[in-house]
Structures are given as structure tokens and as C-alpha cells.
UniProtKB/TrEMBL annotation:
<dbReference type="GO" id="GO:0005524">
    <property type="term" value="F:ATP binding"/>
</dbReference>
<dbReference type="InterPro" id="IPR018317">
    <property type="entry name" value="QueC"/>
</dbReference>
<comment type="function">
    <text>Catalyzes the ATP-dependent conversion of 7-carboxy-7-deazaguanine (CDG) to 7-cyano-7-deazaguanine (preQ(0)).</text>
</comment>
<keyword id="KW-0067">ATP-binding</keyword>
<keyword id="KW-0436">Ligase</keyword>
<dbReference type="Pfam" id="PF06508">
    <property type="entry name" value="QueC"/>
</dbReference>
<dbReference type="GO" id="GO:0016879">
    <property type="term" value="F:ligase activity, forming carbon-nitrogen bonds"/>
</dbReference>
<dbReference type="InterPro" id="IPR014729">
    <property type="entry name" value="Rossmann-like_a/b/a_fold"/>
</dbReference>
<feature type="binding site">
    <location>
        <position position="204"/>
    </location>
    <ligand>
        <name>Zn(2+)</name>
    </ligand>
</feature>
<keyword id="KW-0479">Metal-binding</keyword>
<protein>
    <recommendedName>
        <fullName>7-cyano-7-deazaguanine synthase</fullName>
        <ecNumber>6.3.4.20</ecNumber>
    </recommendedName>
</protein>
<comment type="pathway">
    <text>Purine metabolism; 7-cyano-7-deazaguanine biosynthesis.</text>
</comment>
<keyword id="KW-0547">Nucleotide-binding</keyword>
<feature type="binding site">
    <location>
        <position position="198"/>
    </location>
    <ligand>
        <name>Zn(2+)</name>
    </ligand>
</feature>
<keyword id="KW-0862">Zinc</keyword>
<comment type="similarity">
    <text>Belongs to the QueC family.</text>
</comment>
<feature type="binding site">
    <location>
        <begin position="7"/>
        <end position="17"/>
    </location>
    <ligand>
        <name>ATP</name>
    </ligand>
</feature>
Length: 224
């Protein structure tokens, strides 16, 4: 079994990577540079993960994406939110729309599908999860099911999207990552790309809450 892992070095993709690493005979990680604010940190950490585990790593530059709208690419301001609002669907739906990059996972998975077919990989692994799926439609099981259906008719080798975390919350992902030895100390969740996580963006807040709920310190903050 061979897999391509979409590795942004975020918490979810880092744990999904370790799931694939343990499951498969061969793994290749793909990281995208689409002009996102944290791209330098994401690429740096993804490289460190791949080096640590001795797996192939491909960085794909998408310069045309840098002009697309959205707070992640710096075209708009990052939304501000408090920790008490993380479960307020009305608020988080608006913040999700603010950081939305048009058709991002459609583009990423299409590229991964081409790589999988060309190099005969069986699985395309992503870190989609239940908490993200609440506000991001391209993280849902329905989206994955539809894309897998397309891969059956749109490719000759029929690679399959594998989503080991699809039913998990961030807290459950932290617990799973700790259990299987995922390199959480090399996972970067912050929307910004500064030397340390900002601790205030929605992604940082969700990560902070998850580690607190899991009853453990964040190994990234201990390492820095």
C-alpha cells in the first residue's frame, strides 16, 4: 500500500501523516505553497517531519493562487474571535468564510490525484476532521465521498481519498496523535507565520483548547 499525504504540517495533517506512515509501505508527502501567510513555517515544519521519518517530500508552488481572495493569503484581514465563541456556529461560519480559499481542497486533491495516478499510489491522505467540517464544506464526509466517486470515473488507477480523522474533534485528534507518536512538536496550526504561534487566531485557539481538554501541554510550545 502506497500513499500520498497532503501535509500542511497542521495538527490534523500531522496526525493523519502518522496514521498513513504506520499503515502504508511507502509514503510521499506533498506541501503546497499558495501564498498563505504561514507558508514558510508550514514548509519548514513539513520538511522536518519528512526528514524525521525518512519519507519523500514534494513542495508544489501555486503562484496564481496568491492573487485569490481570503484572509489566509493576506488579501483580507484575519478575523478575530474569542475562545468562548469557538462553538458559536453563527460566528464561526463567518470566520470560516473569511479564511476560505476558493476551491482549495478541490485543487489540492486534483493535483494529488494526478500524482497518485502517475506514480501508482493507492491512497491520498488528508487530515479532514469533524470540527473543521462543521463550517468548511470541503472537509465533510460527503465531499470525500463525492470526490472518491469522481476518481473512479476520472482516473484509470482509481486512487482513494483516506480520511482517518474524519469523525474526530480536535481534542480527539490530539489524543490520537499522542497515542500513535505523531510528531506534534513539529505541527504548526497558526494562521500567521511568525516565530511563535500568535495564540489568538481561531486556529491557535482551537489547538489550545484541544491540548487543554486532553490534559497535556502542547509539545510545540515546549520545544520553542
Amino acid at each position: 500500500m502506497k500513499s500520498i499525504v497532503l501535509l500542511s504540517s497542521g495538527l490534523d495533517s500531522t496526525v493523519a501523516f502518522k496514521e498513513a506512515y504506520d499503515k502504508c509501505d511507502e509514503v510521499m508527502c506533498v506541501t503546497f505553497d499558495y501564498g498563505q501567510r504561514a507558508r514558510k513555517k508550514e514548509i519548514e515544519f513539513a520538511k522536518a517531519i519528512c526528514k524525521k521519518f525518512g519519507v519523500k517530500h514534494t513542495i508544489i508552488d501555486l503562484p496564481w493562487y496568491r492573487t485569490f481572495r481570503g484572509a489566509l493569503t493576506g488579501r483580507e484581514e484575519l478575523p478575530e474571535i474569542s475562545g468562548r465563541d469557538l462553538d458559536n456556529r453563527e460566528i464561526t461560519q463567518k470566520t470560516a468564510e473569511a479564511v476560505w480559499v476558493p476551491a482549495r481542497n478541490v485543487v489540492f486533491l486534483a493535483i494529488a490525484a494526478a500524482l497518485a495516478e502517475n506514480y501508482r499510489y493507492d491512497l491520498i491522505v488528508t487530515g479532514f476532521d469533524a470540527e473543521e467540517a462543521a463550517t468548511f464544506p470541503d472537509n465533510t464526509s460527503g465531499f470525500v465521498e463525492s470526490f472518491n466517486g469522481m476518481l473512479k470515473s476520472g482516473t484509470l488507477t482509481h486512487p482513494e481519498i483516506y480520511v482517518p480523522l474524519i469523525s474526530m474533534s480536535k481534542t480527539e485528534i490530539v489524543k490520537r496523535g499522542l497515542k500513535i507518536g505523531a510528531p506534534l512538536e513539529w505541527s504548526w496550526s497558526c494562521y500567521k507565520g511568525e516565530e511563535r504561534p500568535c495564540g489568538a487566531c481561531e486556529s491557535c485557539l482551537r489547538r489550545k483548547r484541544a491540548f487543554a481538554a486532553a490534559g497535556t501541554e502542547d509539545p510545540l510550545l515546549e520545544r520553542l
